[in-house]
Amino acid sequence: VKESDLVLLDEPLANLDYKLREELREELPKLFRDSGATVVYATTEPAEALLLGGCTATLHQGRIT
User: Fold this and answer.
1) Which of 19, 37, 55, 56 has its CA 20 to 30 A from that of 63?
2) Of all helices (H) and strands (E), which one includes residue 38?
3) Where is 9: in which H helix or E strand?
4) Judging by DSSP bridges, how do beta strands 6-10 and 38-42 pair with one another?
5) pTM for this structure?
6) CA 37 to chain CA mean position, Å
7) pLDDT band at 1 (very low <50, low <70, confident <90, very high)
8) CATH of 6-64, one of 3.40.50.300, 3.40.190.10, 3.60.21.10, 3.50.30.50
């Protein structure tokens, strides 16, 4: 696996069972920090965005707010 400066994730936890999703919600922030990469994490779950994101943005009618 090649290291990257930018990682794009589109709802990576959406299709996981509850237990695994909760475990990864705890692990992902540390993984993101340790990687040193900028991570763009797309999700429809506001709580997940706030938990995992250092900075958040909202996409509304095709515009980032």
Assistant:
1) 37
2) strand 38-42
3) strand 6-10
4) parallel
5) 0.77
6) 12
7) low
8) 3.40.50.300
Q: Pull the structure tokens for residue 25.
A: 């919600």
H or E segment and range at residue 59: strand 59-60
Instruction: With a cut of 70, say whether residue 51 has pLDDT above it.
Output: yes
Parse the chain into domains and list their residue ranges.
6-64
| Nearest of 51, 26, 54 to residue 40 by alpha carbon | 54
Distance CA 65, CA 60 (A): 7
Query: Is residue 16 a contact partner of residue 24, using CB atoms and an 8 Å limit?
Result: yes
